[in-house]
């Protein structure tokens, strides 16, 4: 049982490049989340998906898009990367009881934008 | 708006001593409160939560937290610290009517337990 799996673990991009962060969970959870973690700021929600086919903006959605491809997978796309998007990105999931509260996190993607 | 404050960037405690990591919150209505722990290069792990009921909540790894409504606090405690408890701890809050909206996380407190 892998839980929440994120790929890649590390990535360096140049300003203006695009990329997609992948996330998959094998716990049959309905809800999935994308957070970013910056020093001294805790975690901030980028996007949320309550179920397959639905997505909602979180606290800091600008510059990002998401796709809930199916129940397992929830991807985060940076269309035109900016240095301000240098961060550690975490995907998380929760079951129906944990609605709104992430229960399981991936190990993160460390993204640097030059 | 909801907010969380973790007033200490770092807490140092000797192994075997009791530990407290402080958290205060601001939210409309009755809060849902959470503690998470993060080990180096890992995602957060859920420790415990308060939704309703007994003000003392017990969680994973021997941790507990006390909800104090009058002081708007939810401090994390453990009677006897272990070196392996050294990690980054996050408090989080949300109001019950925000449903699927985000938790608001504090900025984190680094706990260092010295042998």
Structure write-up:
The complex is a heterodimer of chains A (114) and B (115). With 114 residues, chain A is mostly beta strands. Chain A is 0% helix and 49% strand. Chain A has no helices and eleven strands. Chain A has strands at 4-7, 10-13, 19-25, 31-37, 43-49, 56-57, 64-68, 74-78, 87-94, 104-105, 109-113. Chain B has 115 residues and is an all-beta fold. Chain B has one domain (3-114): Immunoglobulin-like (Sandwich), CATH 2.60.40. Helix content of chain B is 0%, strand content 50%. Chain B has strands spanning 3-5, 10-14, 19-21, 24-26, 32-38, 44-50, 56-58, 64-68, 73-78, 87-94, 104-105, 109-114. In chain B, strands 2, 5, 6, 10, 11 and 12 form a six-stranded mixed sheet that branches. A four-stranded antiparallel sheet of chain B has the order 3-9-8-7, with no helix packed on it. A two-stranded antiparallel sheet of chain B has the order 1-4. Chain A binds chain B through residues 4, 31, 33, 40-45, 48, 50, 56, 58-59, 90, 92, 99-108, and chain B through 4, 32, 34, 41-46, 49, 90, 92, 94, 98-103, 105-108.
